[in-house]
Target: phosphoglycolate phosphatase
Amino acid sequence: MSKTILWDFDGVILESMSMRDFGFKEIFKNYPEDKVDELINYHRANGGLSRYVKIRHFYEVILGKKIHENKVLEYANNFSLIMKDRLTDKNNLIMESLNFIKENYTNYKFHIVSGSDENELNYLCNKLEIDQYFISIHGSPTPKDILVNTLINKHQLDKEETCLIGDSINDFEAANSNGIHFVAYNNDKLDKFNTRPPFF
Model:
């Protein structure tokens, strides 16, 4: 059975947090700064959640307002346009991860499971010239735990020989709920959740 690594994207393969901060500030620039700051804090604490969830959270929890799904999609599309313009710089790739991927993509089965929009994610990976290293690339709006479950079933993955590398609590939760190993990266607070498999 082939050993499989599922990769988160933001903060693990690409250093993008500050630019995604900018994206949220930009699409909500007409709202009170303190409310947007609350969203940024939520965004940073929940890196593995999709922008769709974060946009709804901003309206429904922080502003206490209802938001129509069409408006969520409008904000998400505007956010994506900003990201496509800013995240294709190869200097933002995390070299430690990239070097491991390049050196080992023939030794492992690599997939991406991200909270980023799936269409945008495939576009970025193509522009960054890294898509060839991954069997598949998946993102939101499908929640990450479901993405992981779908991959396990589709490829009949051996859970003992599968791990997810991530930098947020949502990544750990997606791995844990699916019974696979979790490797924390770029976030010391998650080290206690490491279940690093022997093959890694």
About this structure: The mean pLDDT is 93. The chain is about 50% helix and 15% strand. The first helix runs from residue 17 to 27.
